[in-house]
Every structure is written in C-alpha cells, then in structure tokens.
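Narrative of activities, Objective 1.

The group set out to show that a structural description can be obtained from nothing but a protein's sequence at a throughput compatible with the screening campaign. Below is one input-output pair from the validation batch, recorded exactly as produced.
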Amino acid sequence: MLRVLKTLIWITSVVAFLIIICFIGLAIAHSVVFSRADYDMYDSRRMPVYEDYSGQYPREQINISSGDNTLVGYLYGMGSGRGLIVVSPGHRDSSDVKLPEITYFVDAGWTVLCYDFTGCYNSEGGSMGGYSQSVHDLDAVLSFAEADDRLNELPVMLFGHSLGGYASAAVLNYGHDVKAAIVASAFDTPKEQWSYSVERFTGVFHTPLSPFTNMFIDLQYGEDKNLSAIDGINAAKGVPVLVINASDDVYYGGDSPVYAKRGLIRNPDCTFISIDAGHYGYFLTEDALEYRKTADALSYHGPVDKDKYLELDDAFMEQLNEFFLKAL
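Output recorded for this entry:
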C-alpha cells in the first residue's frame, strides 16, 4: 500500500512538474512574441521610414490614451474632405510600414490616421500585451476621432492588415460609426491564432500541448480569448466589409482564418477577394516581388532600392479606393 502511495505521489509530482514547465514555456514564448518593438529592431534599409516621405507628405502627431498608456498616431492629408481612413499596422510593425498605402490614399484625396500599437515604437507600453490589445487600441483611436472636432465630421473607414486586419474587424463589435472596413489577411480570435502559432513552431508536439495551450490562453486573455473578428463583421450590419485573403499565407498555413470561416459570416454587405499570393504579396507588383527575392537573399549585401522593393500594385490599390468611395 505504501509503495502504491509513493508511486502515485511520484506520478503526481512528475505531472505537476510537466504542467508547470509547459506553462512557463508558453508564458516565455508569449512574452517574447509580444515584447516591446522599437526602432533598433526595424529594418530601415528595406522598410519605409517617414524621412523618405516627409518632403511631400507632412503629418501631424497626435497622442491618444489607451488604458494606462499613450499611443502616438499621425494624421496625413489634413484638410482633405473626402473622409478619414484609419490604418492599423501588423504585428510588431511600425506605423511607418504602412506609408506606401497611407500616401496612396492621401493622393486619392483622403485624410489618413495611422498609429503605433501599445508597446510599439513611439507609443508607450513595456510590451504589446497580446492580440486583443490591438482591438482596445483601435477602440481608443476611434473614440479619439469621434471626440475631435476636426475629425468627427468625416466618414470613417478602417483599413488593416494581419493583426491590424483582426483589429479592424473585431472593433466593429463596439458600435463605432464606421462606414466601411477592409480586413486583409486577418485571424478570427486570439485563442485560435495563438494555438496555430504554437502548432507552427512545435509541429507534432502541438497535440499533447493543446490542453496546456488552451489553459494558458484562458488565463492570459480571460474573456478576450474569444474576441472575434467574425463576430465584429456580423455585428456591423449595413457596414460594407471587404475581406482579403492570401491563399498561400505562411502565418496561417494557407487561407487566413476569417476567409476560411467565411461560411459563418452573416453580414450581407461583406464581400471577399482571394488571391494566390503570400501574406502581404498581393499589395505589390510582380516586379517588386521579384526584386525582393534578390534583396532578401542572405548573400545580398548591396543597396536596396526602396522604390522597387515597396512598389504597390496600383490596380489593386485602386480597387480598395473604389470600395471606400462606394461607401460614402
């Protein structure tokens, strides 16, 4: 009897130890993925920086309270009366990354507001917090615009890619007066995306880790674990939403989750585009994609021509512009 008891105690101790190790590992991984992002990690050799555009595109800095932190945002094209496009960047991206799209929309007659998420670049925060913090940040940005006398008369459009796409859809749960939203390469919920991220990096070990992953998400995110982009799209009846999908998206293992689950979308004003491309590739010209293969090669140490590297597909961008124009 004593031997059985000792065996049970040993087994229980081992299981408890493994659970603790799994939780510590998941917590460390999450803290690394959502650690603070600053310009010392930003690849300004390839990626856009405001100094590349400042001569032609003046901007105004704004400060926005989001929880305990202050976000830094920028207004471009002030005085354009067409409407306000709120641009949300991707995971660990600076707002500078979206400058090609921002300047395209400014040239098309829009005022554009882009910002850094909590824990990113010019905004406050010791870390990014997690996936759902992006939604709370965008909620704060929209509340700021609604209270600003220069902005609150403008029709508001949302444009986001990746994490920004998720935020641009999920924030529709909060009832802001939004006229249209473009949701590009977006996931649906924090729980779903973290589970896939763990699977992507652990492979066959994902299945035995799943119970611990789910428990960790429950503890880390609470009610936010199921803060859903699809629920936001469904809540926004009468709001046109364009869901853009890349069919070869490495971050999702194929189609983006919002597109893959499009059968759950009941908003009759939601439309879909699926493109045979990678996570961001559909924004770029074929020439830009070819040039990137050279510029991104490990053996390449020469100068990078940013005009070639960042060249947008004007026909695709005009589709997005027309989508917003139809919502006015």
